[in-house]
Design goal:
Elements: H1 2-19, E1 23-26, E2 31-35, E3 43-46, E4 52-54, E5 56-64, E6 73-78, E7 86-91, E8 96-101, E9 104-108, E10 119-126, E11 131-136, E12 139-140, E13 144-145, E14 152-154, E15 157-160, E16 179-187, H2 193-200, E17 212-213, E18 217-222, E19 226-229
Antiparallel strand pairs: 1-18, 2-16, 2-19, 3-15, 3-18, 4-14, 5-10, 5-16, 6-7, 6-15, 7-8, 8-9, 10-11, 11-12, 11-13, 16-17
Length: about 240
């Protein structure tokens, strides 16, 4: 009987292991992640090589959408201390970008959001000054003081296409992203304006992320989200 119970337990563990999405490490240069379905079951998690201890951060990415959901989420970083330690989303009702740092948010107005067009976004924050700034398709926002002046610390859960409401998950339907996301890089510093301009110009070589690097990315993908070649979409 004990042998049978042990065998059943082993089978259950194997089934759970097989059902879990596996981590992949690949160079995604020239590729996009497609989010084709309006459901909280689609997500991509990014896995850095080390825990965070960053006094500043720059997050850069490109996206292409028709904005089916109300407030599509582009990037979400959660830690045990803050469910929204760093997140970026578009607010459909007010036509503004929303940036959250250490669970404190502000809105950035007058920046480009066009459906069915590629949009390049960079967001910066510095713990020493507490200043945040956004850049969209080469246009800079003003700087705003945002969040407590604390370092980014701990083991983060980084998600694309969904904004987390807690450290270990919790997605909301109004924040689902559908479309394409590409060229995600996270830097442990505030990039210079020149470096951000270089990223915005997709025809030139730009500084790759030292914390999250799209060209050497460890990630987990689930649901109907998938990695595709760039030539399969319109640029």
């Amino acid at each position: 009987m004990k042998k049978l119970a042990s065998y059943v337990f082993f089978i259950v563990l194997c089934g759970l292991a097989l059902s879990q999405p596996k981590k992949d490490r690949k160079c995604l240069r020239g590729k996009v992640i497609t989010f084709p379905k309006l459901t909280t079951d689609n997500w991509v998690k990014l896995h850095p090589n080390e825990s965070m201890d960053l006094s500043a951060a720059t997050v850069c990415l490109r996206f292409y959408t028709e904005r089916i959901s109300l407030d599509p989420c582009l990037f979400s970083l959660a830690t045990p201390s803050y469910a929204e330690d760093f997140s970026l989303r578009w607010l459909g009702y007010s036509k503004q970008y929303k940036m959250t740092v250490h669970n404190v948010w502000d809105q950035f107005d007058g920046l480009t959001f066009n459906i069915n067009e590629w949009i390049s976004v960079c967001a910066t924050w510095d713990a020493n000054s507490g200043l945040a700034q956004m850049f969209v398709n080469g246009v800079a926002s003003i700087k705003k003081e945002l969040g407590p002046k604390e370092f980014f610390k701990g083991n983060p859960v980084i998600t694309l296409g969904q904004c987390q409401t807690q450290y270990d998950g919790g997605f909301q339907s109004q924040s689902i992203f559908t479309g394409f996301i590409a060229d995600v890089h996270v830097h442990g510093q505030v990039l210079t304006t020149r470096q951000i301009e270089t990223y915005m110009d997709v025809k030139t070589k730009y500084k790759l992320g030292d914390y999250i690097n799209w060209h050497n990315l460890m990630y987990t993908i689930d649901g109907s989200a998938r990695v595709e070649e760039k030539h399969q979409v319109t640029f």
